[in-house]
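Possible race condition, two jobs.
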Amino acid sequence: CMMMAFASCDRRRYRQLISDYAAWLCGTQLQNGMWSYDGQGRGDNSNTQFAVLGLKAAIDSGVALPPVVLRRIDAHFRHSQLRDGGWSYTQGGQATGSMTTAGLSALYITGAMLAEPRKDCGQHVQDTSIERGLEWISKNWSVQGNPGRGGQTWHYYYLYGIERVGVLSALRRLGGHDWFREGAEFLLGSQQPNG
């Protein structure tokens, strides 16, 4: 989050600091492409998502990353996708909206960073992992709660994930829904009197 904040404030001014944080993240990545939440090598998709978003801020700031770091992230999210097209917090769990948006965001980021020049430039290349994730979002669409978890558990975290997928994919609609409008209307409608 600090890397994203510094990059949004002044990428040039904070480039060295962003670079230092990126080096630390690259050095703490687990071999399976994840980041640990407990210092004992057990990773989860939530911490991994924030590491990926931080690394994207570094790349956007002109910091070069070892390609192996991005390849591990990409491989992790492709191999951890559930049969239904979603992702869970940890291996073997139930798909949730917040973790499915984390998986999709990571694949959009690694896909853009690992893309190699192609002879068929301008032609659409189908990514089945992304398409399956988008189908999960479409089938389970909600701005009222975090799909797969029920109720309000991690609800705003999920809405942030929807925003990330919408921006990274450059899709105006997710599952036929105007994600920005629906999300904004929900947020404005749920704001408390104290702001």
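Job #2 (started ~2 s after job #1):
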Amino acid sequence: LFQTFKIDKKKYVFFVQELIDAGVDTMAKCFKFGLDKHRDRKCVATRELLSEEDEVQPNGKVFKKWKLGEYTWNTYTEVDTLSSEFGRGLRELGQKYKQNICIFADTRAEWMVAAQACFKQTFPVVTLYTNLGEEAIVHAINQTDVEIVLTTHELMPKFKTILSKTKKVKCLIYMEDQVNNTEVTDYKKGVQIIGFKEVIAKGKLSQLHPTLPEPSDPAIIMFTSGSTGIPKGI
């Protein structure tokens, strides 16, 4: 492992021991440890999307061609603030202590903010690969009794059919696109659809406090890719 990833084994062991000595035994404490060390340093970034267009390939497939600008960075302190606000916003939407929540999205800054929000509030995060088929997505959401699903602008259309098969889902949160507005009509009636930024806005106004986890509480339920049969939660 150390040779494959060119990790200095001594530094790695020292770092792990530093976490142990600091009493880091939950994901919430892990981020707090990093926050205390790197408060004003860069943490996550999003690259500006200037424009996008469809590029048709010779085989008929359509790829998105992006024109990208510079990176916009958030410091550890900013991520801490955003995740605290997002976590409170989730609670305002009805998410409960130790209740599972699903993130169905590719990796991006909002994914990390949402995950840290959930760790602070003790919402076990159900993660699903975005290349899963509809049957697998429905199975994972239903098996974990999820009521709130977090996804992205480009994956939203999948839920026009998925929501009819996931009867416990009450709220769908989407991470906004930089260029395009998200269409929120023609979805299952009774399911609240709300943007990521609006959840943060709710959290800014909330007076609720974090409900921090115990070391024995699950942090993540990761579903496999389901290459053989239905995906399995780990």
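Helices lie at 9-21, 27-38, 76-92, 109-121, 134-143, 159-162, 196-205.
Logs attached separately.
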